[in-house]
## 1
Amino acid sequence: MKLTRVGAIAASAVFVFAACSPAPGGSAAAPASGAAAGTQPDACKNKVGTSTSEIHVYSSLPRQGTNTEQTDTLVEQIKATLDGQKVGNFTIKYTDLDDSSAAAGGDWDGAVEQANANKVVADPDAMIYIGTYNSGAAKLSIPILGAACIVMISPANTYPGLTKAVEGVTQPGEPDTYYPSGYRNYARVIATDDAQGAAGAEWAKSMGKTKAYVLDDTQTYGHGLAAAWAIHANKIGIEVVSPNKTTEGFDAKSTDYAAVAQKVKASGADIVYIGSITGQNTGKVWKDLRAALPDITIMSGDGVFEKSWYDGAGSSGNGTFLTFGGVGPDQLTGAGKEWNDKYKADHGGTLPATYTAYGNASAVVALNAIKNAATPNDRYEVLKGVMGTKDLDTVVGKVTFDANGDALGGSISAYEVKTSWPPDFVSILSVKE
Amino acid sequence: MDQIAQTIIIGIANGMIFALVALGYTLVYGIIELINFAHGEVFMLGSFMALVLITTVFKITAGTPLALMVGQVLIVIVITMLATATLNVTIERVAYRPLRNAPKLAPLISAIGMSFVLQNVALLIFGPANDGVDRILPNVNVLSVFGITNVTISAEQVFVALVTIPLLLALSWFVTKTRQGKAMRATAQDPDTAGLMGVDVNRTIAITFLIGGALAGAAGVVQILYNNTTVWNLGFRFGLNSFTSAVLGGIGNLQGAVLGAMVLGLINAFSDRYLAANWTNAIVFAVLIGILVFRPTGLLGQQLADRA
Amino acid sequence: MTPQAKPIQMGVIGWLASLAEAAMSVPGAYRQNFRRHPRRTIILTVLIVFAIVYPVLNREIFQPWNRHSSFPLPFPEDAVVTFMMILSIMAIGLNIVAGFAGLLDLGYVAFYALGAYTAAFLASPHFGSVSVILFSQVPPGFPGIHLPFWMLVPLGFAVAALFGVLLGAPTLRLRGDYLAIVTLGFGEIVPVVFKNLSAVNFDLGPIHLVNANLTGGNLGINPIDPPRFFGITFGSNSGIAAVYLGMILLVVAIVIARNLERSRMGRAWMAIREDEIAAEMMGVNLVRTKLLAFGLGASFAGVAGVMQASYQGVTTSDFFMFSTSILILIMIILGGIGNIWGVIVGALTIAFLDKTFLPYLGQRLQAIDSSLPNPSQFNFLIFGILLVVMMRFRPEGFLPSRQRAAELRHAPVGQAIGSAAVMGDAALASEEFADTLAAEQVVEVEAEAADAADQAAGPPTDPAADTEPPKDAT
């Protein structure tokens, strides 16, 4: 009896929703038209700060759990570069926002990322949003910021679909779906997965490799990088022998990869490519591969370009070829070298973590845009400044953004781990588009 | 054929480690009907302890003379087993004993809480990345003695068997032949009656946790010497597999846990080798659900406790 | 189909009538409540009024204050408040499973994922080779399947309930702790399946799939259409509108859950929670009763998932982790398992701590001295300790249901103080048994049920149901 009424309530909830859904033709995501600038987008009209003394810059990065190793140094760099800087009458105030939560196991949480973006949008003095760390988080905040003319500079997003369409890697509709306001408000100082993957495949080719087994950690970064590597390898005549000529995922929750290594061995591959970040059980993956295949060439990307990866993998990490999206910390020249030396001196000899230099570069791009803006507290002026960054000297080399907001002519460095960390520099790889 | 033989060897070696951890689950479940979620974490801390002992206290490396190495490894095993046994008994005292008479949900939730505490303590101390040690045992194929080179049994795999099998036999002897073992079985069947018969129930339960913890410690050492690496969430990974093993074999049943562990090790290895590595965990759980649906008592049925 | 399918068809008009009736009795019921429990009624009224005006206050006063003041306070943002609503809906659902029926579900997040992917599949350009648009406000010919939010909600509800029943049917006859492990396994499988089905190659008989992208893999699916009513969008960048949509869904969830709790089925759930064997003796059909709890509990998570996907516009397998299941469990335990109001308070508190307060505290500490630790890092350590301590000293939570408190405080199952009384209810719950009861008793039950519905439909009501036998909690 009672259930009848319950059911009726449920049903009528539906009924009520039905009643209030007239359908006048609205529009879904309007296609974004090309690049920024040109004419001033509607979203950017009258977006001038109210304070006469302060400009606010925010960063949104995961600040807990396994992410702190990278993000602590990122925040430190941004803070040192921006906080308290004076531009004309204005003082830059930097705020470090956390986009992670326990509900997400210490990783980025969509709700928190959106809250951060909305918080920044609501602050009339906010000019620049530095972040995110994870490409997935950027998908959420780019459109929110775009609706309010705030530019975002990412030191760490490598997923290509945020800025450009790459066949076989990005999804239909990308990247326009992230720019519903019709203009670009996102730039990144780091090279994308497709560039790094392709450069890595070319490198393997130049080593004379013919058969490759491609593995990934099933995460956005690792999977994207490995897929890009496999696609390019197929194109240039390296036979990809993992199933379906593409990358195969390994589960970071597995206890053992000996059987995976055995499969790689049976495939007759002469090179294994692994797209992964350090925290995905990489120590164990390397050890099991090395145990079964003492002589195979292992190549990987900058997700494991850090000491903690080598500490976990130990001697089985020896003989690994690593690509690094950008100029490696030890190859920096000029300002970059100075910065690197200073960092080491300030941190008891520790080398900067993978993304530390990009954190610094993002902040330098931000500072430059604010300094050169006609009105430093006008969001549109700052946005134009960031998107139009050209030949700017940073610690990762000269930064110039193309129309998509990608750093032009970024370089990919090649490293070999011989018998210890840090690895030995091999060469700068050319970037193939 | 070689490939299949090799996969079986890999599966069994992993199964042995699962077995040592699974016994801890099955002993505790058999006696107080509690899924001790923190057990995997005890194992994880055991492997960290072994890592620290090996790398910084004894400084065992591949270059250490064999006799000395054997002696030191034995000491590492003993120290680690003592430490994890103490930890496990402490957990029982703090988190489970006060809830002995509460509804079942309460200790289970307490166990989940304990598991989170231990995991995060390890995360804070050892950091998020894997910590490793370089291969200590020689990289040789034991089968090459018999002229077989197509299939490999490594020194590590022999070591796993050398530690695991004696421990399993010792446990089996303890439970079936000793007075204390009898007390455990009695308590498992009916704690109230056992108490009336003069069995000190609290002590018996503490001893069960002691044995489970010691086995987890041994598994930790074996894990480090076999895999050469450990990480803060290792307990969760092994815990799920080991608990599944225990259920697969028939929870509360010691032989069942060992059998279940072997089967699970093989499922893992064959799925990794012949299916796809990213589906392995899903397959393991699908097997678990299937077993529970079609044969809820597991492969060998429940022996220690059957009060359902 | 869900068990409510039948009543839905015949009940709409009847329900409208009773809605009108209930609406008219609201002032009376309120006055009655006020007379009976003046203090509680006033507090509740204040709280609810505050909740309703909070988004506006937040936008107009709190956030501007935070921007200009040198001493900002942790006021949750709109997105966080919306998620507080979503998490509360899930807490209410898990409470039906774990709190009412006593079935521990450690993989509750699986149903959340199923709901979210239902919305993602049916309201996004994901299946771009087709263009199916039903009542939805996207231009004709727009690629993909597009259903409006009001259709997604019942679909998410149904899909999650269906999977709940599919999982529950074979496993619910198992002992409680086996169920915990089966659900844990299911919670691990579902996200893995969604993650792995991004490049499916399958060739069996007539089925040929080559690199079929079914789920978008770890990139997930986006953009998902935001909810839209009356031409207003309730998406993540439409400010407070979405917060109110979340609130409406939460209120509907509360009404349904309260009615369920007081229904015959609700009493049967409590009976099996306390003593399965006794309940079965009294004629409660164990499997059917548990299955209903499991399916209905799951369906709440399905609706929450639809809201998540539609609101955020993105869904990926990364959102559905074991930690989310555990966090929901912590919410209901902390708040008071078994008590709807308790679990909502638990959900709001934990979500606030996790998403706003701890990051805020970290920021304030960093502002004082950058060498101070970030408290967010200790999140799970804190929650773990909280669980152990709560189980030891206050297992019934902060706002317990009186029955549950008695059960958890007082020793072995079957001897709980309340069990005799509850068993009486259980008897009523069984239809067969009820038929044999004296007619006046049946009438009494019906009257009581109607009373419950009236109260539930009205605004703030007394949290502790009058139908519960008075017992001392401590």
Note: Strands of chain C lie at 123-124, 131-133, 144-146, 200-204, 207-212, 228-229, 232-233.
## 2
Amino acid sequence: MIFRFKFKQLGRSRFIGVILIAVLFAGWETMSRLSIVDANYFPPVSAIGMVLYKLSVSFEIIGHLLTTLKRVTLGFLLGASIGYSLGFFCGYLPRIYSFLELSIEFLRPMPSIALIPVGILFLGLGDKLNVAIIGWACCWPVFINTMDGVRSTDSILMNTARTFGLNRMQTVRKVIVPYSLPFVFTGLRVSLGIAVAVVVITEMVASGSGLGFFIISTSVSFRVSEMYAGIIVIGVFGYLLNRMFLAAHRYILKWHIGFLCLKP
Amino acid sequence: MKIESLNAVSRFSRQFESFFFFILLTLTAEGVSRSGLVSELYFPPVSKSITTFFDLTISGVLSGEVLHTFSRMACGYFLAVCTMVPFGIILGISRRAYNLFDPLIEFLRPLPPPAIIPVVMLFLGIGNSMKIFVIYFACSFPMLINAMDGARSVHPLLLDTGRSFGLNRRQLIRKVILPSASPQIMSGLRTSLPISLIVAILSEMIGSVNGIGHYILRMQRTFNIPEMYAGVIMLGIVGYCLNKVFLVLDNTLLIWHSGWKRSSN
């Protein structure tokens, strides 16, 4: 009777999805070991695990990981700061935005990847290229969200600030910046995802180091297990960055999340 | 804080301001290039890039490459729409299907689409199928997640109303869930459009013999710099046009939604 009860609960929880993943892994392992699929293309999962361990111990992949991490951090910070400043000015002083609107609307849809060859001309094939391209790709979501946040500052709040006699600087510091912060964080989260994708792209196309370069080079030299290991590392890397960002988001915007929960 | 002036003259002059600034920027770039401040090899005058652009487009070189890229992108994109949107709706409706597939989706989601390219290159070589598959994979996740969210967040009041009208499950899906989820689905389609463009260009840069991504990279490597800039300009125009076309489609198909949003605020 207890067994039957558990069985019914299985379909209702997400545990069955985990079972699906386990089944897929087991299927991969058996098919690879029995050579149903070509083991050159589909090394058994355990081999990938072993290779992952070997690589991490030999510091080969750790070096690439640190390079990628450095590029992502620098590029993200560059793009976010440019996007935030530009967005803030355009939101606070709509006159400036009316000048810049057409130029920005032309530059914004330009995919960052198309600018890689241009960047190679000016910046060579190194860290600077990566950081610049990631910065370009990251600044647009932050720009739009910041501008949106600053522009939509509640007029009640602005009037209250005026009633209290705050001057311009104080209004900006005490009213506009905190109010627009949730919007900015939405933009930051989007551009973090973009940064991770763009760093892999740039490393694949124009770099001699980093995780993107690692998986391309292992792929063309047919070190297939290493390639899969690298892909797993990239996935985990992106996941962990996202998690860290969410934790920072929850910490910094405690008040906003509480406010959202209180709303009827 | 500010009052948007509805006066037609001031609106026109505002648009004119930004156009004027854009022209100013272009002229500055031309001046910087011609005066030799930046090496003219790296930064040819804007006029040269634009004339090269028109030459290449009219002679069919650029347009041919864009056609290759665009056809691959369209294949991958529409494949993703046809498979992922129904799948996402099913996942949104059926609790059991959601429980079954959600951990797998959460497992695959943080993987950036470019990371998939080497694997696919192993299996499918560097032909069209590789690119279409990569574009398909890259587009899938935004569409899937948005379709799933849209189907899940149908207002329970609407569902109950449908049920009290005696609709069976299929009619409920067609008349209540699909229309209610369509703004969210459109949002997913709109998100995956630039992703498909980027992944298409990337897959061409890595392994291809035609297509505009490959063209730009090839021009850079052979130091045909004005041609390279012409390609970049073409890419910017393609991206801009895709955005505009999608906006028009969005407004036509979901015209009820924008009106409803405005009236409910």
Note: The mean pLDDT of chain B is 84.
